[in-house]
Specification:
Elements lengths: L2 H18 L5 E9 L6 H11 L9 E7 L1 E5 L4 E5 L14 E5 L3 E8 L1
Parallel strand pairs: 1-2
Antiparallel strand pairs: 1-6, 3-4, 3-5
Helix pairs in contact: 1-2
């Protein structure tokens, strides 16, 4: 379960930033998770609660925004939506795809006190 190490990294980043900037508490962490990133949102949610204990993010709400996948198809020359990394191009059935959107996970926003 790589989500545990990802959740630890998110909490470390949030905790560091909150302490550095002198905040007392993190109320909400807004994460963007791409549907092609291989990260399970529900697993991150579970792990986040576990690893946030004892940090400024303890008790913070985790708001997850899922980003759709998108790829450039070299066969038909179109930007196409993509639901999974192994899917073919929905327009021409080709597999020569460059994934452009939905492959990352990032902290988008913090709500703090």
């Amino acid at each position: 379960m790589h989500e545990m190490s990802l959740a630890e990294s998110v909490v470390d980043l949030v905790d560091y930033r909150a302490r550095r900037d002198g905040y007392q508490r993190v109320k909400t962490v807004r994460l963007e998770i791409g549907k092609l990133s291989g990260v399970e949102p529900e697993a991150i949610r579970f792990c986040f609660d576990e690893v946030a204990s004892g940090t400024l993010a303890e008790g913070a709400a985790l708001d997850i925004l899922e980003q759709d996948g998108q790829a450039w198809c070299f066969d038909c020359g179109q930007l196409v939506p993509l639901a999974a990394r192994s899917d073919p191009c929905p327009e021409c059935g080709g597999f020569r795809l460059r994934m452009d959107e939905g492959v990352a996970m990032r902290v988008k926003e913090l709500e703090i006190e």
